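User: Hi! I have a protein structure encoded as tokens and I'd like to know what sequence might fold into it. I'm fairly new to this, so please keep things simple.
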């Protein structure tokens, strides 16, 4: 299953706010735009919705009333799902699901709704708490609501990675015992882009070839290591240098690498930020392939290539795209950037240009929506970045 399109708005009551108007996606996508244009907001709109549905909990901490709306269209081999949601002041005002154009449920602001029980073959009126989601409640029932199984799998297979962040360099989940079951713990770990150490250890315990694959893929980006592993630590030990204690928190293992020709191990706190981001992202994406049964995923990567030199940014992007293409229909890839090198190395057919108006509305331009404009520029012979920096897409649209 993959996202066809999404619309989203977030507005204070009696305020202007901002709005994403029907952004259409391909299987591979690069969202290109200036700083503060709304690239990260778009990914967060998807990720916040997913987190709320998984946890069945509204996740807005606000000091004033805000109204948020989602409309997301999803498609698998057989069906199209359109899910709509409206939340105001941490109360669900509206929630609706269409499957192939037919209404599956439609709840009102009082939590009342009618839904078909498939095995029984009847529709039943019901009521749910004003801050709980019908979708989260019903997709767990595979007997009476088998039509929601594909949607349930998608909700639980969306993963976001903030390439401009630490990606677990300074912290990760501890594998110390917690008062939750193992399945819940690892479901949480799967979606945590800082839990790279635990993901590495878990995949390695399952498949010994995992390490060799990581070394091979990492070196293909332009690095030169011969080994990678983890070592257990006691953060309270007097032998741990203070500089390490100051930057490592809630962690039970450290990741290390060994470069060719260098005897000493290089632990994660001493690996450069850019180098660690690349290593972490490769480990975490490869982990999904090794760890998850019937692997299928929507992968969101914010600020891809941030902080890398031209050569390695180029190789990383090509690696991620090639890896996604190799997995055929199993992966949808959505990346954001404002880096010219990144833009120049991704074909325009994958581009989504994002542009924010003064009124807060965010518009999108793609080869699907403005085919002639994109194709005309491809014949000009300039590099892809010029299409964005020269605002060629705007002039072309204006001359239509």
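Assistant: Happy to help. Inverse folding works backwards from shape to sequence: for each of the 400 positions I chose a residue that suits the local structure. Here it is:
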């Amino acid at each position: 299953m993959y996202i066809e399109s999404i619309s989203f708005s977030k507005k204070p009551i009696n305020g202007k706010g901002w709005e994403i108007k029907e952004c259409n996606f391909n299987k591979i996508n690069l969202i290109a735009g200036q700083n503060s244009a709304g690239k990260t907001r778009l990914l967060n709109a998807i990720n916040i919705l997913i987190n709320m549905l998984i946890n069945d909990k509204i996740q807005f901490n606000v000091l004033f009333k805000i109204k948020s709306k989602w409309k997301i269209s999803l498609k698998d081999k057989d069906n199209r799902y359109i899910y709509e949601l409206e939340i105001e002041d941490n109360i669900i005002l509206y929630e609706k699901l269409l499957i192939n154009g037919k209404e599956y449920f439609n709840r009102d602001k009082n939590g009342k709704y009618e839904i078909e029980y498939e095995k029984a073959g009847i529709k039943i009126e019901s009521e749910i708490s004003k801050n709980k989601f019908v979708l989260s409640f019903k997709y767990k029932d595979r007997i009476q609501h088998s039509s929601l199984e594909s949607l349930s799998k998608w909700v639980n297979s969306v993963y976001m990675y903030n390439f401009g962040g630490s990606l677990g360099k300074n912290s990760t989940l501890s594998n110390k015992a917690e008062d939750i079951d193992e399945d819940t713990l690892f479901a949480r770990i799967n979606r945590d882009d800082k839990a790279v150490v635990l993901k590495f250890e878990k995949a390695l315990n399952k498949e010994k070839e995992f390490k060799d694959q990581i070394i091979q893929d990492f070196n293909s980006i332009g690095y030169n290591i011969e080994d990678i592993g983890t070592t257990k630590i006691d953060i309270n030990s007097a032998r741990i240098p203070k500089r390490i204690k100051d930057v490592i928190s809630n962690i039970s293992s450290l990741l290390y690498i060994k470069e060719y020709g260098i005897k000493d191990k290089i632990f994660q706190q001493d690996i450069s930020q850019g180098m660690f981001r690349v290593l972490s992202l490769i480990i975490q994406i490869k982990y999904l392939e090794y760890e998850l049964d019937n692997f299928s995923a929507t992968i969101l990567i914010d600020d891809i290539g941030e902080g890398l030199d031209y050569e390695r940014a180029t190789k990383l992007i090509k690696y991620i795209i090639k890896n996604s293409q190799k997995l055929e229909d199993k992966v949808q890839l959505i990346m954001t950037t404002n880096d010219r090198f990144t833009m120049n190395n991704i074909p325009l057919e994958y581009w989504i240009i994002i542009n924010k108006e003064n009124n807060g509305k965010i518009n999108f331009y793609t080869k699907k929506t403005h085919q002639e404009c994109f194709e005309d520029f491809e014949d000009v012979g300039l590099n892809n970045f010029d299409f964005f920096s020269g605002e060629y897409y705007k002039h072309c649209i204006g001359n239509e």
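A useful reference point when you look it over: The longest strand covers residues 2-12. Feel free to ask if any position seems puzzling.
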